[in-house]
Amino acid sequence: MEKISDSKKTEFTYQAIGTANPRKQSLTNLRPDTEDKDILALSDIFQTLAPSEEPMEKLAIINTHHYSI
Predict the structure, then answer these.
(1) Where are the alpha helices (DSSP H) in 1-69?
(2) How confident is the model over 1-51, as pLDDT tens digits?
(3) Strand spans (E) along the chain
(4) CB 3.0 to 4.6 Å from 68: which of 2, 22, 39, 57, for a disulfide?
């Protein structure tokens, strides 16, 4: 069986101002060969651009794939 990549995306989660619910921001359609270290470097840039009152809490990297049978 061959493993085939379908998609790769990231989801940044920030502490939201004035609410208990976090604020989320997604990047979709990333190249399948994108390395985690490059996404982590990008998260550093996003942290510098976000309001200081809304620090980043979590970064999720989501890979989906399927198998050709």
Answers:
(1) 36-49
(2) 888 989 999 999 999 888 889 999 999 999 988 999 999 999 999 888 888
(3) 2-14, 23-27, 56-68
(4) 2
C-alpha to C-alpha distance for 46 and 40, rounded to whole angstroms: 10
Classify residue 52 by its DSSP letter: T
pLDDT for position 59: 95
Q: Which two tokens stand for residue 56?
A: 């980043």
Domain ranges for the chain: 2-68
At residue 38, φ and ψ (nearest 5 deg) are: -70, -40
Q: What is the pLDDT of residues 53-68, one digit of tens each?
A: 888 999 999 999 999 8
The radius of gyration computed from the CA coordinates of the chain, to the nearest angstrom, equals: 15
What span, in angstroms and rounded, lies between the C-alpha atoms of 31 and 63? 11
Q: How far apart are CA 26 and CA 65, in angstroms?
A: 19
